[in-house]
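User: Let's play a game. I give you a shape written as tokens, and you guess the letters that built it. Ready? Here's round one.
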């Protein structure tokens, strides 16, 4: 399976509309080169541009949805379109990820469960999602998570119990905690015996330098590909069948004692 992680730079001076058009073009450029394309978290506004969340919030089927659905269909790829600030018809804001099929049809939406900021920022401006989300592709089952979720292993255990084999994590991770980003991505891959595709952003979000360094990790914790710090397309090819082989060769998930045990296969 071929994946392209689009590590988008978010810089001041570029309008949301211009960035949306630019990103759609980058998605279309993956035609023939990728089966799955992944975008970062809140790439329309920037994950730390808190004042923009309300101003740029859109309904689930808003302009970003329309642009990304068309781009996915034009490129003929599965597109994890990162996340957007979603305004629910009843009023609350959510940090919501969108997944589209190669025909441009909606395949899944995930509202971020763990909001970052403690007592400010996203934690107070956005509501928390409540549901774990997986999506079945022809080659693998995706488990969806977003940025700060990476620090909560119980979420990923739940995704594995729901059948996830490839964990996709768009993020707006800050440079000052880049070491945690790499460490946690590898930990989630090893402990869940799953692929991790973690796509970050480049540039600066409201004065906060971004880590970049998007990463793809295999079920044994081996890094298959890692981006640098700037805007970049990280292309990696991986074998989804390695998940089943790993879980059979080293069946650690069957030895779980606490919590819900992974289902027998």
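Assistant: Ready! My guess for every position:
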């Amino acid at each position: 399976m071929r994946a392209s992680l689009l590590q988008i730079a978010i810089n001041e001076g570029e309008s949301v509309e211009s960035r949306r058009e630019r990103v759609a073009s980058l998605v279309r450029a993956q035609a023939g080169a990728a089966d799955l394309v992944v975008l970062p978290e809140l790439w329309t506004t920037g994950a730390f541009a808190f004042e923009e969340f309300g101003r740029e919030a859109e309904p689930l089927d808003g302009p970003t949805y329309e642009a990304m659905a068309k781009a996915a269909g034009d490129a003929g790829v599965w597109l994890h379109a990162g996340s957007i600030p979603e305004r629910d018809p009843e009023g609350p804001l959510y940090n919501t990820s969108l997944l589209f099929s190669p025909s441009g049809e909606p395949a899944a939406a995930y509202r971020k469960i763990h909001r970052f900021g403690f007592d400010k920022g996203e934690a107070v401006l956005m509501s928390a999602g409540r549901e774990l989300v997986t999506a079945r592709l022809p080659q693998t089952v995706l488990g969806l998570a977003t940025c700060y979720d990476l620090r909560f292993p119980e979420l990923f255990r739940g995704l594995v119990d729901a059948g996830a084999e490839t964990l996709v994590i768009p993020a707006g991770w800050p440079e000052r905690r880049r070491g945690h980003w790499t460490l946690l991505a590898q930990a989630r891959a090893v402990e869940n015996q799953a692929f991790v595709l973690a796509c970050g952003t480049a540039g600066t979000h409201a004065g906060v330098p971004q880590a970049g360094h998007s990463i793809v990790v295999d079920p044994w914790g081996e890094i298959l590909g890692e981006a640098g710090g700037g805007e970049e397309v990280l292309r990696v090819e991986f074998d989804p069948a390695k998940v089943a082989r790993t879980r059979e060769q080293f069946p650690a998930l069957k030895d779980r004692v606490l919590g819900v045990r992974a289902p027998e296969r």
